[in-house]
Design brief:
Largest sheet: 7 strands, mixed
Low-confidence stretches: none
Helix content: under 10%
Mean pLDDT: 95
Distance between the termini: 39 Å
Number of helices: 1
Shape: globular
Strand content: over 45%
């Protein structure tokens, strides 16, 4: 069974940090563009950050540039999202997705994905 599972969400104070992980089972993430997306109540799903399958090319939404970092751990078949300097407006359900034959910008902007995880809640509040 092909599956993506997110972990690492939780409640954090403004200015704090969280590290999200996206783990794959049943397939190898190496061959896919991987993206992190988020959806807040009443809002559309938006692309946060995406990373390519081969050359390490990355894309970040303007709202997270300089604060979030996406990375691959091919040995563990995971993709991580390090989130620093968190703000209340970062509160959302965060999803990871995998897509084949798509650029990082296309994946994050459209957004698209062949496989999606179930999401993990991130709440930034004092």
């Amino acid at each position: 069974q092909l599956q993506l599972v997110e972990s690492g969400g939780g409640l954090v104070q403004p200015g704090g940090s969280l590290r999200l992980s996206c783990a794959a089972s049943g397939f190898t993430l190496d061959y896919y563009t991987i993206g992190w997306f988020r959806q807040a109540p009443g809002k559309e799903r938006e692309g946060v950050s995406c990373i390519s399958s081969s050359d390490g090319n990355t894309y970040y939404a303007d709202s997270v540039k300089g604060r979030f970092t996406i990375s691959r751990d091919n040995a563990k078949n995971t993709v991580n999202l390090q989130m620093n300097s968190l703000k209340p407006e970062d509160t959302a359900v965060y999803y990871c997705a995998a897509a084949a034959f798509v650029s990082v910008q296309a994946m994050c902007v459209m957004p698209v994905g062949d496989y999606w995880g179930q999401g993990t809640q991130v709440t930034v509040s004092s």
